[in-house]
Structure formats: structure tokens, C-alpha cells
Automatic annotation (TrEMBL), chain A:
Organism in which the protein naturally occurs: Candidatus Liptonbacteria bacterium RIFCSPLOWO2_01_FULL_52_25
UniProt keyword annotation of Transmembrane helix present: yes
Keywords: Membrane, Transmembrane, Transmembrane helix
Pfam families registered for this protein in UniProt: ABC2_membrane_2 (PF12679)
Protein name: ABC-2 type transporter domain-containing protein
UniProtKB/TrEMBL annotation, chain B:
Lineage top rank: taxon: Bacteria
CDD domains noted in UniProt: ABC_DR_subfamily_A (cd03230)
Protein's name according to its UniProt entry: ABC transporter domain-containing protein
SUPFAM superfamilies for this protein: P-loop containing nucleoside triphosphate hydrolases (SSF52540)
Assigned keywords, A-Z: ATP-binding, Nucleotide-binding, Transport
GO molecular function term, any single one: ATP hydrolysis activity
Domain ABC transporter residue range list: 2-228
Signal peptide span: none
Length: 252, 238
């Protein structure tokens, strides 16, 4: 555990010193602040403010995650910084977990900074704290965990460009395959089986998208929240195990 | 003691290290010599546990190189090292030190940086370091756990004459402290000065292992090395 924490801390420190991170974060904060103006245009309708604010946090959070994660292991292999690490008492699994937790912590911090600005804007415009939005932020952090694990896995076996493309496809597919599956079910035949297999392979990111429901005041049971947390943990665990498997077999 | 037994490694069907066996006695300096692509770096990577051998074994201080606990007692400096550029020299050294079980104080890290001559630059980001300073930082991280066995891959590469002398002095000093040093180098003049024993590798096969004086037979090391490799090339061609 000590070694994982040391690597995570180092990854976190490296990540938060990335200048481009501040560029994207600054842009996202301006966007979230601007949603206040959108609320004014829409005659103070809180739904517009909440929808744009939470969507902005999600959009910029995903960009930051993909940008920082696509090369997280790849660059260590290419630049041979892994030589320093693996000549010390560090296993492949400890490296994978350390990289995961370090990047996850850095991305979570940026999401929380954006969320803080969002809650400030909400409080200033409506005079009350947007408590239900906390659930949307929590679920976004869970989705980010899955995305970070996906990027750690793909950056172990492929280039940053390919990892980026796959991550974007997984984001898109993960949010849209539920409806594709429903359509395929209506059509039936071998297509349904094919779509079903892809559906189970891809992360079901729709589980984490509670933004609309939160904005419209839909509540969630503790059980459904726990199931979503368990799903994120299980999916990330499988991806990180696969990353460890491939890294063990990789010639450095 | 470092014991290498029948070590073999292939990449894509090409044998890079072929049935290599050698022993390095505790407290000695061993120079591992060979042309570019002869298998020196692959051998050292298998010795420190970065690469897994296809066959054979490496035992360091009685422990197999695949044993993580063995790595508590070794230090390794890779060739032309790259670093985490956004960290400072001191942060990088602390990061490396904390990967070991034994806790070290900040004073200990400062002492190592003083030893390799980059203490004044300790709080500067590594991306502002010169090539020679990075080489010294690479050397520093290999000493961070006060290892008994030190593996250096081309430690004198990229250093100016003064820098080379300082590193050589450090190697001699480490030997005096009872450390065992194994290093790859193609700078043969320096090797001759500081080594107790050498190994000559060519196309993955060990051509010679033993004392420097016995190998040189009164001639300069570089001349004897070239003659040995050329003789092997002629044998292979005929």
C-alpha cells in the first residue's frame, strides 16, 4: 500500500503541474460562471442554469481526463522512466494502481474545483444550495474512475492517439448503447446478439448520467446508488487487472 | 556476490544474450564491455529485474533477480536516463527513496545530492538540468537506498572530462566502502583505470571474463578489446 501511495502522490504532483491542465480548467471555470448569464437570459429558470452548469462540468471533466490519461503508462514506457521504478522493489500491479489513483485524484480535484464554482453560481442566483447536484457530481466522479481505468489499460497496450480515440468511442458508445440495444431488440435476429455482446463489453456509462434526473428533482434510492458504485468499482478492477496482465508481458 | 548462470534472451527470434554466465565477487568493480547492440543493456536489465530472462538465472546476494526483496539492496542507473521533468531534483530523489522500505531523512537525500555535485540545483525543475546534471541525478537515485550492489549502464556517457573523473572517483569510493559495482561502458580508457575484472560480450556471447591485467597482457585495453572482437568476427565469417 505504501508503494502505491508513493507512486500515486508522484503521479498527482506531475499531473497538477501540467500547464495545459490549467488552460482547460480555466476555460471550464469561465464556462460554468457564464451559465449565470444564461440563467438571466432564460428569465432565471433554474433548470437551464443547472443543465448547462452540470453538462459543462461533465464535458470539461471528460476532456481533462482523456487529455491527461491517454499517455499515462505509454509515456513511462517510451521515456524509460519505468526503469527507475522497476529496478526498485515495485511490482507491475503497484505501478498500475499507483498511476490509477494518482490520476484519479488529480481529475477528481479538478471536478471538485468546477463543482465549487457551480455551487457558488447557483447559490448566488437562487439563494439556496443545490444539494441534489451533489449526487450528479458523485456519479460523474465514479464515471471518471471508470474512464481513468480504461485509459490506464489502453495506454499500456497502445499509443496515446489510439487510446484517445478508443476513450472517446467508449464515452459515446457507453452513453448510447442502451438505446441501440433497445432498437436491436425490436429488430431481433443475430443483430441483437451482436449488439448485446458489445453492450456488455462496453462500460454502461448511462448508469452514471443522473444529471437530467437531478435537475428535474427525481430522487434515487440508496440501493441504486450502491449498485452504481459497485459497478464502477468492478469495471475499473477488471480493466486495471487487464492492464497489469499486459504490462507484465511487455518487453521494456 | 553476483551470479549469472546460462542467461538467455531473444527478441523476435533473434538471440540477444546467449547462454551467458559470470560471477562478480563482493566488493569488486566489474566492467562489462561490448559494442553497441552486443547485449550489454539487455543483460543489465535482466540482472536488475526490469526484463525477464528466457532462460538461466541471476542471483544477487543469494536472492533471485525476480524476487522483489532483492531490489531493496541494489541500485540501478539506466543509460541516458529520462526523468519526470516537472519534479525538482530533490523531489525526484525523495520519490525514488520512498519506494524502498527503509525510511530516509531529508538530510540523507541532501547528502547524496552533495555527493554527486547537484545540491545547489536541488530545488530546480529537472527540465532545466543539463545532460551532465541529469546523468548525476541518475547516479544519485542509484545510491538512494545505500545499496550493496550498484549497476550502472554507461555511467560516463555524456559527461565532460571533469564530470567523468568525479564519477570515477565516486565508483572507487563506493568500492572502498565495500560496495559491488557492475557497469557497462564503451569508454575503455576509464574502464581500465577502475575495474578489477571485466567481461567482454559480442553478439550476446561472452568472449572473456576475468582480470583486466590478464586480458590486456601489457597492451592498452582498447587495443586488446578491438583485437578480441575482430578475431571473433573473422572466426564467425570463416
Amino acid at each position: 500500500m505504501r508503494v502505491i501511495l508513493v507512486i500515486a502522490k508522484n503521479t498527482f504532483r506531475e499531473t497538477i503541474r501540467d500547464r495545459i491542465l490549467y488552460g482547460i480548467l480555466g476555460f471550464s471555470l469561465v464556462y460554468v460562471a457564464i451559465t449565470y448569464l444564461l440563467a438571466k437570459i432564460s428569465l432565471g429558470d433554474p433548470v437551464v442554469l443547472k443543465s448547462f452548469g452540470l453538462a459543462g462540468i461533465y464535458f470539461f471533466g471528460s476532456i481533462i481526463t482523456i487529455f491527461l490519461g491517454a499517455s499515462i503508462i505509454y509515456k513511462e514506457i517510451e521515456r524509460r522512466t519505468l526503469y527507475f521504478i522497476f529496478s526498485k522493489p515495485v511490482s507491475r500491479l503497484q505501478l498500475v494502481l499507483g498511476k490509477f489513483f494518482g490520476l484519479f485524484a488529480a481529475v477528481t480535484m479538478t471536478i471538485l474545483i468546477m463543482a465549487f464554482v457551480y455551487f457558488e453560481v447557483m447559490f448566488y442566483s437562487s439563494g439556496s444550495f443545490d444539494t441534489p447536484a451533489l449526487l450528479a457530481i458523485l456519479f460523474q466522479i465514479l464515471e471518471t474512475g471508470v474512464l481513468v481505468a480504461l485509459l490506464v489499460f489502453f495506454s499500456t497496450i497502445t499509443t496515446p492517439l489510439t487510446a484517445t480515440i478508443i476513450a472517446v468511442m467508449a464515452l459515446f458508445g457507453g452513453h448510447s448503447f442502451s438505446s441501440v440495444l433497445r432498437t436491436a431488440h425490436e429488430i431481433g435476429g443475430p443483430l441483437y446478439g451482436f449488439v448485446q455482446s458489445i453492450y456488455y463489453l462496453l462500460p454502461n456509462l448511462e448508469k452514471f448520467d443522473v444529471r437530467s434526473a437531478v435537475v428535474h428533482g427525481v430522487s434515487f434510492s440508496a440501493t441504486s446508488i450502491l449498485i452504481t458504485i459497485a459497478y464502477a468499482v468492478c469495471y475499473a478492477t477488471v480493466l486495471l487487472s487487464c492492464a497489469n496482465f499486459f504490462l507484465k508481458r511487455k518487453e521494456l | 556476490m553476483i551470479e549469472v548462470q546460462n542467461l538467455t534472451k531473444s527478441y523476435g527470434g533473434r538471440v540477444v544474450v546467449d547462454d551467458l554466465s559470470l560471477t562478480v565477487t563482493t566488493g569488486s568493480v566489474f566492467g562489462f564491455l561490448g559494442q553497441n547492440g552486443s547485449g550489454k543493456t539487455t543483460t543489465i536489465k535482466m540482472m536488475v529485474g526490469i526484463s525477464v530472462p528466457d532462460g538461466g538465472s541471476v542471483r544477487i546476494g543469494g536472492k533471485d533477480s525476480s524476487d522483489l526483496s532483492m531490489r531493496e539492496h541494489i541500485g540501478f542507473m539506466p543509460e541516458a536516463p529520462y526523468f519526470y521533468d516537472r519534479l525538482t531534483g530533490l523531489e525526484f530523489l525523495e520519490f525514488c527513496g520512498k519506494l524502498f522500505r527503509k525510511h530516509r531523512s531529508e538530510h540523507a537525500y541532501s547528502e547524496i545530492l552533495k555527493q554527486v555535485g547537484i545540491y545547489d540545483a536541488r530545488n530546480r525543475p529537472i527540465n532545466t538540468y543539463s545532460k551532465g546534471m541529469k546523468q548525476r541525478l541518475g547516479f544519485a537515485q542509484a545510491l538512494v537506498n545505500d545499496p550493496n550492489y550498484i549497476f550502472l549502464d554507461e555511467p560516463l556517457d555524456g559527461l565532460d572530462p571533469l564530470g567523468r573523473r568525479e564519477i570515477k572517483n565516486m565508483i572507487v569510493d563506493l568500492k572502498k566502502r565495500g560496495k559491488t559495482i557492475f557497469f557497462n561502458s564503451h569508454i575503455l580508457y576509464d574502464t581500465e583505470e577502475i575495474c578489477d575484472e571485466i567481461g567482454v560480450i559480442h553478439e550476446g556471447r561472452l568472449l572473456y571474463v576475468g582480470g583486466v591485467k590478464e586480458f590486456c597482457k601489457g597492451q592498452p585495453l582498447e587495443k586488446r578489446f578491438v583485437a578480441t572482437v575482430e578475431a571473433k568476427l573473422i572466426t564467425n565469417n570463416s
